Amino acid sequence: MDGEIVKEFSLVSVNAGRVRNSDYRGREAVSGIFKNPVADAVVVRPSGVSGDEVADLVNHGGPDKAVCVYSLVHYPHWERVLGRPLGYGAFGENFSVDGLMEEEVHIGDVFRVGTAAVQISQPRIPCWKLAMKWGLDTLPELAAKSGKTGFYLRVLEEGTVRTGDRLKLIRAHEDRISIDEANRVMHRDKQDVEGIRRLLELREVLAGSWIGMLERRLAKLETEG
Q1: φ, ψ dihedrals at 44, nearest 5°
Q2: Quick one: fold of 8-174?
Q3: Is 0.90 surpassed by the pTM of this model?
Q4: What is the per-residue pLDDT across 135-193, written as a single tens digit (0 to 9) for each?
Q5: What is the distance between the alpha carbons of residues 87 and 221, in angstroms, rounded to a whole number?
Q6: CB of 156 closer than 8 Å to CB of 110
Q7: Which end of the chain, C or N, has fewer beta carbons within 10 A?
Q8: 146-163 CB burial, b ≥16 within 10 A, e <16
Q9: Residue 125 in contact with residue 186, Cβ under 8 Å?
Q10: Domain segments of the chain as ranges
């Protein structure tokens, strides 16, 4: 994992939370989206962040979604939308960072943080749990269409991480397909066949769930075309 440090960013807050029951649209909902800053160091493993719980193991967590990352650069925008201040972990992220914008990081990029090595695997797909947490039903759609989604990391080397550590880019993926570009194809230009094919060329580093969704979409477009 050694290599020249190209970029580095500050890990402003490490966040974790326990699964809790909430009410959403008159029904009981179980979620681990309610996360708070952690004062002590955590262990980052392929299964996730120590002390953090995931309720929906089908759509969240697992090797391709071990760590959720969100940029604090987006917070002022959502504070205006929601009309309230936001604390670290507001979007259910494990890592609140001072940069790592969707336009400047890429599927397959590898970072060193603390003693762990992590790799970007996919953009986050905002879901109804954001709407439940903040009482705004349109929030997942707004986040997806804005491109302010955040993204997930898989863990290549287990290690210890704490607030204040630096995320150091140690290997940039050669294809340089950004999180923003992946979001464009997934959410905004859904019929971009060539864009889908380019993403599918990242099979070795793109999350399996994304490969499946893109393959199904491509097959449908090719059949209809």
Answers
A1: -105, 115
A2: M1 Pyruvate Kinase; Domain 3 (2.40.33)
A3: yes
A4: 999 999 999 999 999 999 999 999 999 999 999 999 999 999 999 999 999 999 999 99
A5: 42
A6: yes
A7: C
A8: bbbbbbbbbbbeebebeb
A9: yes
A10: 8-174
Asked if 59 and 130 touch (Cβ cutoff 8 Å), the reply is no
What six digits make up the tokens of 60? 């969240």
Residue 210: CB atoms within 10 A of its CB come to 23
Per-residue DSSP letters for 21-43?
Answer: EEEETTEEEEE----EE-SS-EE
Q: How far apart are CA 134 and CA 130, in angstroms?
A: 6
Closest-CA residue to 69 (of 102, 47, 39): 102
Joined tokens for residue 67: 């760590």
User: Where does the chain show beta strands of DSSP type E?
Assistant: 8-16, 20-24, 27-31, 36-37, 42-45, 48-49, 67-71, 95-97, 110-113, 116-123, 151-157, 159-161, 166-171
Instruction: Report whether pLDDT(105) > 60.
Output: yes
**139-146 vs 75-82: helix crossing angle, rounded to 10:** 150
Give me the phi and psi of 76, to 5 degrees please: -55, -40
Which of 46, 131, 39 shows the shortest CA–CA distance to 88? 39
Is residue 214 packed enough to be buried (19+ CB in 10 Å), middle (13-18) or exposed (0-12)? buried
- Measured from the Cβ of residue 48, the count of other Cβ atoms closer than 10 Å reads 24
